[in-house]
Each structure stands twice: as C-alpha cells, then as structure tokens.
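Reply to dn_fold:

You asked what the input looked like. This is it:
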Amino acid sequence: MFLLVLALASLLAAGYVVLLAPRRALRAAVGRAATYGRPRVQQQRRVTMPGAVATLARLGMRVLPRTTREGVSAQLAEAGVRRIDADTYVAGKTFAAATGTIFALLLGASGGNAGVGLLLALLVGSLAFVGPDFVLKRRARERRDTMLRDLPSALDLLAVSVEAGLGIDGAVARYAESSKGPLAEEFARVVAEMRVGGSRREVLSRLADRLAAPEVIAFVRAVAHADQLGVGLTGTLRSQADEARRRRQALAEERAGKMPVKMLIPTVFLIFPALFVVLLGPAVLNIVSALGHR
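and this is what came back:
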C-alpha cells in the first residue's frame, strides 16, 4: 500500500510540473513584454523560477556537463517549442528520470528480485532522461525540412511583393500574415523583433542562427548585401529561390540514392529468411521424413 501511495504521489508531482510549466512560461513572456521601452537596468531583471524547478534544472545539467542553458534554448527554438524554457525542460526530464527510477526500484523490490529491479531502474531512468532529447531533435529536423521545402515559394512571394512596391520588411510581414507553417512563424517572429526596435541585419542574423540552414544563411547575406550596396532585391530574391530549389532537388536525389543501402538491412534480415522458409521448408521436411523412415 505504501508503494502505491508513493508512486501516486510521484505521478501527481510530475503532472504538477508539466501542467504549470506553460503558465510559468506565459507569465515570464508577459513580464518580458512589459519591460519593453523601460531603462536597460529594468530590462535585465530576470523572472525568478520556483526553487524546485531551478534545483532540478541544475541537477540535470550536472548529469551531462556539456549541457548548457543556451544550448537547450537553441534546441527548443529549432523545434519550435516556445511554451517552456530551458530550465523547465531540463527540470522535467530530471524529475521524470528520478520518478521512473524510483518506481522501477520499488517494483523490483516488491517482486523480490533486486537485480532485475536495478536493471529496470537504469533502463527507465535513462530512457526518461534521454528520450525527450531524441524527440526534440526529430521534431527540429522535421520542422527544418518543412521550412526548407517552403522557402523557395516564400522567396518568390517576397520577390513579387517587392516588385509591387513593398519593402522587404512589409513583404516579410505580408508572407507571415498570409501563410501558415513553421517558416511563416519564424517570419512573424522576425517582424515582431523589428517592430520592437531590432535592426534588420541583427534580426535576420538571429533567424539564420536559429535555422542554421545554408539556404537561409544565403538569403540573409543577400539581403544584407543588397542593403549595403543599395541594389534591388527582386533579382536577388529570385536567384535565391532558384538556388534553394536546386539544393532541394539535389538533397532529394541524395536521399533517393541512399535508399537502396537502407533497404538492404530489412531485405537481408526480414524478407530473405521468410523466403527461404517458404522455398526450402517443404524440401527440408521431405528430407527429414525420408531419413526418418529408413
């Protein structure tokens, strides 16, 4: 009974951390927005986090010394996760790993096999701590592929908007308002940062740092070069769109070339054994039956 009560309390505490994390992030975002336009001394004030979350975050970063708050924030930004911050994410992972480890130990102790319980605890704790990172990286990779797929069409729309008389800022805002998807979300963030006083070069540089894609870096450099020299952006945007399409086609051809190698493993270990059983199974049974009658 005591073990069930302890497990239930751990699950309730985990739910408390997960459910309240978005609210804390929202309050922090509102607090940061409220400081816009105030003196710089007031802008540097940070929203203090609850002691338990901060302690768990520090503990999780000590488990993996290479993990930094800036690196986790960059991973969350690449995956498009803005409802939680780096400390809350690491704290959630640490708490899930600790809870899973304790629950597995108690389960093994109740079964009377300490060795199996210890092995299960290590497995559950490792999966609970490392699993979210794999999910986050996969989501970031899918989001990045979606943005690169939408980038040529976005550059064409920007070129048409610039030809119609809009500036590059207005063209980006137009695309962010009329489109959906992760690229439109990033462009909307660019527009919001420029509206609060950020320079175009700095905001676009941060966009290139977040996405870390050659096509986006080339787009940012082309816009900065056009601003510096005062040349038109229409031809530059169209050339960047064509270059992005060529890179996307080259990437698709590269992935298609790797497919035969990836298909070799399931073919050898899954298809061939079943084929051998179907083709050679009756012959083997006949041979065994014939030898048994002798």
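The chain has a mean pLDDT of 76.
Hope that clears it up.
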